[in-house]
Design brief:
heterotrimer, A mainly alpha, B alpha/beta, C mainly alpha, A: mainly alpha, ABC transporter involved in vitamin B12 uptake, BtuC, 15 helices, C: mainly alpha, two-stranded antiparallel sheet, 11 helices
Chain lengths: 313, 239, 289
């Protein structure tokens, strides 16, 4: 019950902020951080819960963005419909990728997700309808009542998406599905021998994960008023979506949220004060540092701190 | 004439150019205590893997309770009543001892959360691990791990339990503890196939024994007969 | 496509294929034999290319530079494996996910590091054999491809002989197949694996030199080579050296034909496509154990 109150408060807070006089930049940055909350949470459903590392977040994200563009260009669809369609298409992509490779060892799934980025990006580069290699401009609708700017509306949309993503992740985590996924992560061979339908569960997690990533991507074209392959399929999305749960903690739904907020904020600060390249380097370094030194992430460190405080009394 | 619980007919399995099993056939009757011995690399674990579904056999058939199961996934075979313990214990290491049992109780037997936890505790009591119920499974001693392996297999409520070297590396009294658990399980009607290197355990436990060597069955009979068989002695001592 | 064009594509494909095999052979050892999830292998190769480029600025011939870099990269390989072993493999549980994440992070750091130092533009080297072509009957074969082909062949042959004829080489193959038995014989598997990983990385230095001979390099090149090297290693069958050569040739020829018929933007997809097909149909590869 506390969880749902927390979620309602989050949405109310986001809406409240959007209606207030807060600096416009906050919503630009806030949108990006919330987008990462969705991506990190989505990644963790397959990566943290089941132990299958997806390198190809950028593919699912990018396809979500392009699906939204196609719907917008072809039918002038409203944002909600774009997001829904993007989730379906990226979900199918996740299902397909999983079907091909989840029967095999984890590393082959990971390499296959790199392949998916390449194939999707090449396909979009060669598709004139969505602008091909140079991309295309998008005319987004003017101000969205009751918000002062379209960006504010996108901020609130992303907040709602984040709440949805976290709710789905939490549901999976505490349900029998989550127990099965954890068994797969701990010992897939044993899980299979003790009644867990490993392939089905993995496919489920992969599909849901892909769908959420696509949903996150759908809002991007409107946010930028522009779409092009290199930035839509940027590897930074893949690395960030992987780094954030590793930094925050992979066994609990709160981990990706913490990781996204921490790392996302760091990224915003570094990009503005130093440079984008250094920012990207920082993400990589933090990923390696945490993977080596703090494998259970921030949540794990907090747990150790609590234990240490309790035992030193 | 009652049909056997498990029928393995002409099963073969290759790895690359290496033939791990060649035309192995055997039958296990319901309620039987069946021993499987053989030197290292003779194919015992491969055979077990083919029966449990961890591997697919290339030739031959495996019939369990009258149903051909060669094409079924491992989790489907478990739901039909085949459970196994692992030679090197593979607990769900992020879970407590209790939760390790909840997994099969939910996924094989179909119990809900509350019933699964209660039943898991009951099983732990019978096996002597109840006081370790909340302990993370990656903090157990060797003999406790072996008991957990068996407890987890029990939680799957099998008709056939395959115990893969459950006593390897244990001390004398620990071997007796595990052996007693297996005897008690068999008394409740569970058919047990035991793979073991500890000869005195196999001889005390089994009603019938089969010896494998280089992927083939070289001898079949009573424990007393097997021990005296010259082929078996040759396989182990490598004449 | 006319017969002459097809033949030219095949000839080019053979040269390219042998190059791909040599480039993948380090991964064949690191991943195929040692089972390390070394997705940073192409990134290290690109690092080798850039080191070759730097030496080239001082007048070094690229192949000579590549050979000179091998001992340095050997030490780098040993260090990386040691670090990987201490941090992940030893600890067991969860090592798979974290090991993969580690190598992915490492590849990323190398790529971004190269961008910071050298920028995103392409870099090339100069040598006597770059820019000129060998005329063979009706065909014109670029000399740089011939040189790369020769070096690649020598490298592949050398490593294959090393693994099958020398004591340490056979120990490496043994540790891949039966580590407990090796331990019983008194050998230390960790030191053997360390040595093997070092060799795999050393070889990658020369592969990097060949890469910049064959064409210009840029920091993001490691991404497409993840596809190519893993396609070769999987198609070959993990741990098979002769298979690596055969798989390399298959990839090289297919890519060359696609390049000629459909153009450059689709050529990288061939590797990934081949990889996905191999994983879907015959994951143990052509010569797999």
């Amino acid at each position: 019950m506390k969880f749902w109150i927390g979620m309602a408060v989050t949405v109310a807070l986001a809406a409240g902020l959007a209606l207030s006089r807060t600096n416009e930049y906050f919503f630009y940055a806030g949108f990006v951080v919330l987008q990462f909350v969705v991506l990190a949470t989505a990644w963790n459903i397959l990566g943290g819960y089941a132990g299958y590392v997806n390198f190809g977040t950028a593919a699912f994200f990018g396809i979500g963005a392009y699906t939204a563009v196609v719907l917008f260009k072809a039918a002038g669809a409203p944002l909600a419909l774009q997001i829904l369609a993007a989730a379906v298409i990226s979900g199918l992509l996740g299902f397909g990728t999983g079907l091909l490779t989840l029967r095999l060892r984890g590393i082959f799934f990971s390499i296959a997700t790199v392949a998916v980025i390449f194939i999707m990006e090449t396909a979009m580069v060669n598709w004139r309808y969505v602008g091909g290699a140079t991309g295309m401009q998008l005319l987004r609708p003017p101000v969205m009542e009751p918000f002062e700017s379209y960006t504010r509306m996108l901020f609130v949309t992303m907040a709602i998406l984040a709440v949805i993503a976290v709710s789905i992740a939490r549901y999976i985590e505490v349900s029998w599905i989550g127990r099965g996924l954890r068994a797969i992560r701990d010992s897939e061979e044993a899980a299979e021998c003790f009644g867990v339908p490993t392939l089905q569960l993995k496919l489920f997690a992969c599909t849901v994960s892909g769908a959420l990533m696509g949903a996150a991507g759908a809002a991007m074209p409107m946010y930028m008023s522009f779409i092009e392959p290199p930035s839509s399929f940027s590897l930074t999305y893949s690395v960030s979506a992987l780094a954030m749960p590793m930094i925050g903690g992979t066994s609990h739904w709160l981990g990706p949220v913490i990781g996204a907020i921490l790392l996302g904020s760091v990224q915003q600060i570094v990009t503005v004060t130093i440079s984008n390249e250094i920012n990207v380097l920082v993400v990589g370094v933090l990923l390696v540092v945490f993977v080596v030194a703090a494998p259970d992430g921030v949540l794990g460190l907090l747990k150790k701190l609590r234990w240490w405080l309790r035992s030193s009394r | 004439m009652v049909a056997p619980l498990l029928q393995v007919k002409g099963v073969s399995k290759h790895f690359g150019g290496f033939s791990a099993l060649s035309e192995v056939s055997l039958e296990v009757a319901e309620g039987e205590r069946f021993g499987l011995i053989g030197p290292n690399g003779s194919g015992k674990t491969t055979l077990i893997n083919c029966v449990s579904g961890a591997l697919r056999n290339e030739a031959g058939s495996i019939v369990f309770r009258g149903e051909e199961i060669s094409r079924l996934a491992a989790y489907q075979r478990t739901r039909r009543g085949i459970a196994r313990s692992f030679q090197i214990p593979r607990p769900f290491h992020s879970m407590s001892v209790l939760e390790n049992l909840v997994v099969p109780l939910g996924y094989v037997v179909g119990l809900n959360d509350a019933d699964a936890h209660a039943e898991a505790l009951r099983i732990l009591k019978t096996i002597g691990l109840a006081d370790k119920a909340q302990t993370p499974s990656n903090r157990l001693s060797q003999v406790e791990l072996r008991k957990l392996e068996l407890a987890r297999a029990m939680a799957a409520r099998p008709r056939l339990l395959i115990s893969d070297e459950a006593m390897a590396g244990l001390a004398g009294n620990e071997v007796d503890e595990v052996l007693k658990i297996l005897f008690d399980l068999n008394a409740t009607g569970i058919t047990i196939i035991m793979i073991e290197h500890i000869m005195q355990a196999v001889m005390r436990f089994s009603q019938r024994v089969i010896c494998l060597d280089a992927g083939r069955i070289i001898c079949e009979g009573t424990p007393a007969g097997i021990v005296k068989n010259p082929d078996v002695q040759r396989a182990y001592l490598g004449a | 496509m006319s017969f002459e064009l097809l033949l030219e594509a095949i000839v080019f494909g053979v040269l390219l294929g042998c190059f791909y095999a040599a480039v993948s052979i380090g991964l064949s050892v690191a991943f195929g034999l040692l089972d390390v999830p070394h997705v940073a292998h192409p990134a290290i190769m690109v690092l080798g290319s850039y080191c070759t480029y730097v030496l080239g600025r001082y007048g070094w011939d690229p192949i000579v530079a590549g050979i000179a870099l091998m001992p340095l990269f050997f030490l780098l390989g040993v260090a990386i494996y040691r670090f990987y072993y201490e941090s992940f493999e030893k600890r067991g549980s969860d090592a798979g996910v974290r090991g993969l994440a580690f190598f992915f992070g490492l590849a990323f750091i190398i790529e971004v590091g190269l961008i910071l130092v050298f920028g995103v533009d392409q870099r090339m080297v100069e040598a006597a054999y770059i820019g000129r072509s060998l005329a063979l009957g009706e065909f014109r074969i670029p000399w740089r491809m011939v040189v790369a082909f020769g070096v690649a062949l020598a490298l592949t042959a050398g490593l294959t002989i090393y693994l099958s004829r020398t004591f340490t080489g056979r120990a490496i193959k043994a540790v891949a197949q039966d580590e407990p038995a090796l331990r019983l014989m008194g050998a230390n598997p960790v030191r053997i694996k360390q040595w093997a990983f070092g060799i795999a990385t050393g070889v990658t230095a020369l592969a990097g030199a060949m890469l910049i001979v064959v064409g210009p390099v840029e920091p993001s090149l490691d991404r497409v080579y993840i596809g190519r090297t893993f396609a070769v290693v999987v198609l070959a069958g993990l741990g098979s050296m002769t298979g690596t050569l055969a798989a390399g040739l298959i990839l090289g020829i297919s890519e060359s034909i696609v390049l000629m018929q459909f153009g450059a933007s689709w050529a990288p997809a061939v590797a990934f496509g081949l990889l996905l097909v191999a994983l879907g149909i015959r994951p143990q590869g052509l010569f797999g154990r």
